[in-house]
Design a protein that fits this description.
Blueprint lengths: L8 H7 L5 H21 L14 H4 L1 H4 L6 E6 L5 H9 L1 H7 L3 E8 L6 E7 L8 E12 L4 E6 L9 E10 L7 E10 L2 H4 L4 H16 L4 H10 L15 H10 L6
Antiparallel strand pairs: 1-7, 2-3, 3-4, 4-5, 5-6, 6-7
């Protein structure tokens, strides 16, 4: 049986018997991907988000006590003044809304430094669904030190780590711009509940958040583009990509996005 049989009738009429085997295979692959996009996209209809806000001393005791972060890293800024970069970073709703992986800002309420932000991310890699929802509770936002901090309410999943973050713009003579974004990360795994060695989970935690901040189409890159005017900020709550096909094509296949 010819591969032409599996193509749409309109495509068979256009291609006829003159098409090369390569053209037929490419058209067939495209057909398969389109079908996969429809079938994969349907289950990820947004569902209501439930969470419980608890005092910081309960949500993340080590962070509340001011203990040192578990790990830290820096995201070099390629240009722009610290003031221009901080102006972008402190507007968290617009910044996260403008990231290519943002699907939707579901909630942003409260004053700066105490806000509650619920964001839904596209997750074409390293997650068991195409969408994931994070609930961020901000703890500080300080203009004098150009820093902010927040915790993920409820952690990163049923038995995945509690997480807290601090971001700070800092002088860095090692980069041409003289400015880097320093990121401190606190995390805590409940080894008793997990019940197996957590070495791999710890490695994945480091990898995930290093890629979120430093990776292609990530946080630092978006900050840079917004500060330079190379990217228009989004403020309507909806991300730039709104279907699974675009996410697969523009983030995963062509964009090199790793999360």
């Amino acid at each position: 049986m010819s591969l032409l049989f599996f193509l749409p009738s309109s495509a068979r009429l256009r291609l006829g018997s003159r098409c090369s085997p390569v053209a037929v295979v490419m058209a067939l692959l495209l057909r398969i991907l389109v079908v996969a996009e429809v079938s994969e996209g349907a289950p990820d209809v947004p569902v209501p988000v439930s969470f419980e806000l608890r005092p910081l001393t309960e949500e993340y005791p080590a962070f509340a006590r001011g203990e040192p972060p578990v790990f830290s890293f820096s995201a070099p800024m390629s240009g722009g003044s610290a003031a221009a970069l901080w102006k972008v970073i402190k507007n968290q709703s617009a910044l996260l809304n403008s990231m290519p992986a943002c699907s939707e800002i579901l909630n942003f309420t409260g004053p700066p430094g105490e806000a509650l932000l619920v964001v839904q991310w596209h997750t074409p890699n390293r997650w068991h669904r195409w969408l994931r929802t994070d609930v961020r509770k901000y703890v500080t936002l300080d203009d004098a030190t150009m820093s902010l901090s927040y915790v993920l309410v409820g952690g990163f999943g049923s038995w995945l780590p509690r997480l807290a973050f601090r971001e700070q713009l800092a002088a860095d003579e090692a980069v041409p711009s003289g400015v880097s974004l320093k990121v401190d990360v606190w995390y805590e795994l409940d080894d008793t509940s997990i019940g197996w060695p957590t070495d791999n989970l710890q490695n994945l935690t480091r990898d995930r958040w290093t890629m979120f901040y430093n990776g292609t189409m990530g946080y630092a890159e978006t900050v840079q583009k917004l500060a330079e005017g190379a990217l228009a900020p989004r403020t309507d709550g909806k991300g730039a990509l709104q279907n699974t096909w675009d996410v697969w094509l523009k983030l995963k296949f062509m964009g090199g996005y790793e999360l």
